[in-house]
TrEMBL record:
<feature type="transmembrane region" description="Helical">
    <location>
        <begin position="93"/>
        <end position="112"/>
    </location>
</feature>
<protein>
    <submittedName>
        <fullName>Membrane protein</fullName>
    </submittedName>
</protein>
<feature type="transmembrane region" description="Helical">
    <location>
        <begin position="188"/>
        <end position="208"/>
    </location>
</feature>
<feature type="transmembrane region" description="Helical">
    <location>
        <begin position="236"/>
        <end position="257"/>
    </location>
</feature>
<feature type="transmembrane region" description="Helical">
    <location>
        <begin position="404"/>
        <end position="425"/>
    </location>
</feature>
<keyword id="KW-0472">Membrane</keyword>
<feature type="transmembrane region" description="Helical">
    <location>
        <begin position="6"/>
        <end position="24"/>
    </location>
</feature>
<feature type="transmembrane region" description="Helical">
    <location>
        <begin position="277"/>
        <end position="309"/>
    </location>
</feature>
<feature type="transmembrane region" description="Helical">
    <location>
        <begin position="316"/>
        <end position="341"/>
    </location>
</feature>
<feature type="transmembrane region" description="Helical">
    <location>
        <begin position="132"/>
        <end position="151"/>
    </location>
</feature>
<keyword id="KW-1133">Transmembrane helix</keyword>
<dbReference type="InterPro" id="IPR019733">
    <property type="entry name" value="Uncharacterised_YhfT"/>
</dbReference>
<dbReference type="Pfam" id="PF10797">
    <property type="entry name" value="YhfT"/>
</dbReference>
<feature type="transmembrane region" description="Helical">
    <location>
        <begin position="45"/>
        <end position="62"/>
    </location>
</feature>
<feature type="transmembrane region" description="Helical">
    <location>
        <begin position="361"/>
        <end position="392"/>
    </location>
</feature>
<keyword id="KW-0812">Transmembrane</keyword>
Amino acid sequence: MDILFVVLIGAIASVLANLNIAVFNDGLRPIVGEHIDGRLKRRELGLTAFAISFGLVIGFGIPFTITASIILIHSILLGTDIIGLITPKNKWGTPVAAAVGGLYGWGLLVGLEGFVKLFEYLPINFLDPMGQVGTPVVVAFTVFPALAVAMQFSIKKGILTFLVTALVRQLAVFFNEQGFLSLGGNTITLNQEGMALIAGMIFLFTFAMREKQEEGSSVDLASLFSDKVKSIQKNVPFFMILGGLIAGATNLAVMAGDPISLSLLAEGKVSEAGLAAAARAIGFVPLIASTAIATGVYSPVGFTLIFVVGFFSPNVWVALIIGAIVIFLEVMLLGVIARFLDKYPGVRNSGENIRSAMTKILEVALLIGGANAANMIIPGLGLFFIAGFYLINEIAGRPIVRMAVGPVGAIAVGIIANILAVLGIM
């Protein structure tokens, strides 16, 4: 079932990209829109997709997938973006995209299983230390609402949000230790990161909704891009099938939608992973909705709520059905969401700030996690390598994205450790 789900996801996502219906990379959506409007040739579109997404697949998606032994959705859907947009959009190109996309999904899953088995035969199995890469991410992720508030509104409001978030987290820890909360004689344990995240998100959206539209500056998204919204809605059956499959695959613990929930899922913390996925989904709604409404090109994962469905569903079949329903509702409510974003420009503008805040948090957390993992593999030399790797990458103009430096560096240290062990100098 795991293989079937991943193969179908790869095939369908490649077809949606090939037909200019949906792409995963947020930065590609406006470019695909340019192609649809006739201002960009297909060949240029394919080359742009490769240039934007290939580095993220190799430097971001694959390392996380190997680290957790669970597919990070970026590693498959960034790849299907490339496959779908490079193949011609014609009677033979679309079936080829489906076949190659399905084969790519199969190769990703089978290759992952092969990697895990390969680690068992190494002189130094560094798979367990690699689990440290995601450990700081879970805690650091709760900071992103405060950072987004500071970026969009003011440093003072950002500091206030940060302090309240920290206080709420510590109160949750205190309540858990003292056993203050109980229901029917059973002690209730609060997830401290989840409580802190909720507090931060309340502050973020309170500030955003208080930001009023300046008179005469309104951009009527609902009417201006009504034809774009209709073009997305007519393809809703495709989104329902893909949304159901992704929710099902998430329920099977085959894949996750972001590094935070991926790390939690790898630790067996399914409810915490669902909560983290929910916070991310709520934060990304303004960004995904805005780009979709303006371009007529949707995301194959919608607002990412299908991952939340996958985590909290009791079984794979319920996840499949509810996932399809959720993404149907998302698509059909795009016009309502457009009007909401018109009414609250602060919420609309928060989309890019939320994305930037998450990126900055992940850059720091993953660098720390990578350093911890590398130091567990080779004490001392691991920290030396990660520090040098990060600085050289910066000086070289960041050929590897900052978020990937920690995971890639830790994998490199694991390989070096095995080479040293073979040579007998470790």
